[in-house]
Amino acid sequence: MSSAVADLERVVKEIAEEMRQRTDRGEPASYIPELANVDTGSFGLVVIDNDGTVAAGGDADMPFSIQSISKVFTLTLALGKAGDRLWKHVGREPSGSAFNSIVQLEYEHGIPRNPFINAGAIAVTDRILSGHQPKEALGEILRFVQFLADDSSIAIDRTVAESERRTGFRNIALANYMKSFGVIENPVDYTLGVYFHHCSIVMNCRQLAMAGRYLAHSGRNPATGHRVVTPERARRINAVMLTCGHYDGSGEFAYRVGLPGKSGVGGGILAIAPGKASIAVWSPGLDAYGNSHLGRIALELLTKRLGWSIFGA
Ligand code: DON
Q1: Ligand 1 midpoint to CA 265 (Å)
Q2: Is the per-residue pLDDT at 35 higher than 80?
Q3: Average pLDDT score over residue span 128-153
C-alpha cells in the first residue's frame, strides 16, 4: 500500500471517529415528516480517489435520502438533452437566499437563479419531462443515477416522495408561480411528481461517491470507462456546485471546505476534488441553511488534512 493511500485511509477513519464523538449534531429536516425521525447519531464518509482506492469510515453503507443532491444528476441529464439552451430556463448565479425561497422569482420574471435552488431544479425537471410521461422521465433519471454509480440496485423511497407531496406547499407555490410566467411547460402536478420522486432516491455514501466520479475526472467515470459529459461540461457543473451548491451557505462552504459540493436535506453532501477524488459524506443533522452540520465540518477537516482545497493548502 502506498503512503498516500495509507494517509487517506487513516484521515477518513480519524474524521469518522471524531464525528462519532461530537455532541453538536444539528437537527434533521422537519418539514418533510418522513425525514424528521431520522437518527442524528449516524455519520458516514467515503472517498474514492484517482486510482479507485475507496476509503470508508462510519456508516458508509447506510442508505439515506439524497434529496437535493439529485439536482446535480438532473442538471447533467438536462444539459445532455437541451445543451446550452437549458440556460434560457434557469440561471447560474448564486441566489444568496434559502433553497425554497420565492422572493427573486417575481423580480426575475419566473426564471430561477440557478439549477440547485428548488425553483431551478423544478424548472430543470420540467425540461427532462417535456415530451415524456412522468413515469418515463422518472425512469430515465433513476437509470441515469444507476448508470453513474454502476449499481442497478439504487431505488426510490416512495414513502418519502409521498410524504413530500402531501406537505410540499412551498414547492407547489414555486411551480405554480413559474407556470404563470410560462417557465414550466408541463402540468405542474406532473413536474412536481417527478421532482419529489427524484429527490427521494436512496443511496449510501459508497454509491454516491461512485456516482460523482465523472465530475472528478473530466467527465469520465474511470471505473466503468464511460464518458458521461465533456471535460468542459464537467468543469462547468463543478463551477455551479461551488457557487450555488449550498444555497445561502455556499460562500461559507467555499471558504471552509474549498471544493465544489452539493448538499441535500437528507444530510448528504457530494463534494468533488477535481482530478483527485469524489467524496460523499452523510450526517442527517442540519445547520440553519439546511446543509449537513457534521458533513460540512468533516469535509473541512478532510480538505485541510489532505491539502485538497481547490484554493491551495
Ligand atoms: O424540495 C425540497 O424541499 C426537497 N426535496 C429538497 C431540498 C433540499 O434537499 C435542500 N438541501 N439542502
Answers
A1: 5
A2: yes
A3: 98
Beta-strand pair 155-156/54-58: unpaired
Backbone dihedral angles phi then psi of residue 281, each to the nearest 5 degrees:
-130, 150
Residue 247 among the catalytic residues: yes
190 catalytic, yes or no? Answer: no
Q: What is the pTM of this model?
A: 0.98
Task: Write out the three cell numbers for 108.
Answer: 426575475
| Known catalytic membership, residue 38 | no
CA 18 remoteness from chain centre = 24
* Domains of the chain (ranges, CATH numbers): 3-67+203-306 (3.40.710.10), 68-198 (3.40.710.10)
- Binding pocket residue ranges, ligand 1, CB within 6 Å: 67-68, 99-100, 118, 164, 171, 199, 263-265, 290-291
Handedness of CA 290, 292, 296, 299 (dihedral sign): negative
* 265 vs 36: CA distance, rounded Å: 10
Q: Which residue has the cell 461551488?
A: 242
Q: Is the pLDDT of residue 268 over 90?
A: yes
- Listed in sequence order, the residues at least 6 apart from 53 whose beta carbon sits closer than 8 Å to its beta carbon are 5, 8, 9
Please report, as a single letter, which amino acid is at residue 296: R
Q: pLDDT tens digit string along 51-87?
A: 999 999 999 999 999 999 999 999 999 999 999 999 9
**pLDDT single digits (tens) 105-116:** 999 999 999 999
Pairing mode of beta strands 64-65, 155-156 = unpaired
